[in-house]
Amino acid sequence: MRVIQKKTLGIFLVVLPLMVILKFHWTSSTIATTDVLQRQDSLKELLEIRIQQMEHGNDNIPYHIKDSVSRSLAINGCVCEGDKLGIHFPFAHLLFPQVSATQLRSTVQDSDLERAQKYNKKEYHSFRKRTYTAADLLILAEANSPLQYPTQGVEVRPKRTILIPGLSLKDNSKKSSYLVNLNATMGTFDTAALVDGVQIKGDGEMQISFVSRSLAALNRQLQFVTYTNTQFHPNTADVVQLNTVGFQASFTIRIRHPPMPKFYNPGPQKEYNVNTLVTIATKTFLRYDKVQDLINSIRQFYPTITIVIADDTKDPKPVTGPYIEHYIMPFGKGWFAGRNLAVSQVTTKYVLWVDDDFIFTSNTKLEKMVDILERTTLDLVGGAVREVTGYSATYRHTISTDAGDEEGDCLHIRTGYHHVIEGFPNCVVADGVINFFMARTEKIRQVGFDPRLARVGHLAFFIDGLDSLYVGSCDDVIIDHASKIKAMLPWGQSEIDKAYSKFRYPSTQETIVNEYDLFYRKNHFKCVTSD
Description:
The protein is α+β, with helices and mostly antiparallel strands. 30% of the residues lie in helices and 28% in strands.
């Protein structure tokens, strides 16, 4: 008895320190929290104040506006103007086509206008926070060399004109004249106004030069330099060369259409009207009993939410009911192809992806998912799936890459997450989550699902979206997973179970070739590590 007690005590003395170390490691790794709301207002205000201080030193020098250039600058916002009506005669619109203009506010009923304006303002503010970062802010490089110029944040829409901010020459030496040259490759320079005492050569060309005996006059003139994009490319940049005697600098002007907001009908004004904000999407194959169980569970909690079902069964059966859309695919097209089809039919702001053998419960609170997507910059948030054993899985992963060589980069997949989200103690930021998630519909469509991954490859979607998806995971939104025990037992399998297993669970070798082959051929990875 004493020998057993000594052994027990010895084991306890060994295990206890290990448990303490593991507990410390676990808690220390989860302490860090991060606010996922990008708060750049203070930085932007600071930069704007600094720019104003830098640009107003020569305001007393007069200038003359050039109407031919200034008309192309939208100083106080754009205006839509149509052609004035001319002479009316038959087929006049064919011979002399005219530009029409429509004020979109006039198309909205007066009773809905205020609500629409309020909603659009809220959504656009949220959109800006998600899509604009500190890298989009205007920053000027003060004249450490005598040249001052913008280092980032200068942007022009294709074939449009802008004023180039922050150009200046800071030269304390006494010279008989001062010179500044600018060169571009995808656009031309001009001036919106003329300053007396400054000679300009190259108006309307890719190279322009300014010469003046007065440094103050030259700097005043540089405040009116314009850039017009002439070579159409919807997403590129022009590198502008700026030089003076003995010094040279470069900066970029980004040429692009701005990110396009896409708003959705919010429905009646309630806290969160899930029925009009969310569509539930799933993919099925053969398992119509599972799909019906899923639908029945959804209807207990969300009677009018739309359910989109993609089905690639060989002999499909109808799935009908209110707010159900059932789309038939070619036989055996696969899981990711079905995801693409289902998501393509979603008309709501958010889409919730579920497997066809999931079951909604009182813990499947979609409002919580909507809440975090509405209040943060996350694009996608996963939940937890509870198995029949009672264990809930979140399947959180971090994904990273290392730069490689011509053969490819290195892909690293690890179990875990990056940090806790401030204000949401049950939520973390990760790169890959479980197969139960809600996402912004447009972001899901932007990434898409590779239809070549027919049976496996859940993480492949998150790898494709690594540069564009901001992913979170919350363990307090839980959905149940229907029991697989009966279907996995040979004597418990029905003919449908056997047919499903044949397609769902291919050989291990086939699985590796399919998924890893795409990593190599499509994503340009030469190796992958995972835990």
